[in-house]
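Weekly modeling sync, notes
Attendees: S.R. (lead), two postdocs, one rotation student

Agenda item 3: backlog of single-chain predictions. S.R. asked that every request posted to the team notebook include the full sequence so nobody has to chase files. The rotation student volunteered to paste the first one in as an example of the format we agreed on. Action items at the bottom.

Example entry:
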Amino acid sequence: MKYDFDEIIPRRDSHSCKWDSADDSDVLPMWVADMDFRTAQPVIDALEKRAQHGIFGYAKVPDACFEAVAGWFARRHHFRIQQEWILFTTGVVPALSAVIRALTEPGDKVIVQSPVYNCFFSSIRNNGCETVSNNLIYRKGTYAVDFADLESKASDPQASLLLLCNPHNPAGRVWTKEELSRIGDICLRNGVTVVSDEIHCDLVYPGHTHIPFASVSEDFLYGSVTCTAPGKTFNLAGIQVAHIIAADEAILNRIDRALNIHEVCEINVFAVEALMAAYNGGEAWLEALKRSLYDNYTCFRDYFAKYLPHCSVLPLEATYLVWVDCSSLGLSSARIAETLLEKGKLWVNAGTMYGAAGEGFVRFNIACPRKLLIEGLERFRRVFGK
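Predicted structure, as returned to the notebook:
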């Protein structure tokens, strides 16, 4: 079946956060992480069928929903999950907040690896904990973990959690088994629980393999919590569904209680149908999507190399979020983003959203039809091409 990822689908006036947040309708949004593509047809069909029923009461999550999650991770990631390890909630950010609440005390330290997903910082702060950054090492156009610094930060008796972004947003890295093993060994040795955000796990490109942190060893399985969702994979963020995976029964029970305290322990009728349809019938669409996304990345990278060589596009191993080193412009990340919005009507994310280690960078969302991608590139060039 042919999938058309070049069709431009108008999203303005659809109550879209991405498209309707700018006052100026000429602004091209390449910021928040949702895609400008329709989801897989089996998902649309399932939602249409459910809508036709016409009654939308409280949802009961059926066994088939748990089976869909377990089947997907077994097939796609060789990670075998038992049904009793799974909790459902409304999103990965609520999941992370509930996990932090469940597994920390106010004043505890939570380690992150900056530059990293900005909601990590707010989830930590909102639960009364302190963020400690094990900054990634930026060298030769890519990122690596600073293991010596991680050992130092993890050895602090107040450090209780590490929030791992796997694959990494915004750096685009897919952590290898060796890297995950070293991270896990350090955390286990120091009594630090790893909370692995794996929402981008399905958007990994050829030459790289996503390895769920919990799948590396039995010790890692019982010493970690995994938070993931079909939202990024199938463009379902607005459906609001995610799953938390924890094999340790005591940890799972504490998280379950935190979900109930936060009152994010129930998913809606459309979330149930969308998740099952995506995981049971969306694989062919996903493979076509990944080819289209990587073609977009190649176009993006080549355009910068030809017209904007003073800025460096980092390799993209996963996600559809491209991290660009613009430090040669001599401006702060915030000023670069402001100038692009003011002069180019192009909305991107400033690197410092992801921590101080993101200074000098900007993040682009390239999950859009090629025509819009090229328009965004040309707007950037008109502003900073000299």
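Discussion: group reviewed the output briefly. The chain has a mean pLDDT of 97.
Action items: rotation student to repeat for the remaining queue; S.R. to check formatting next week.
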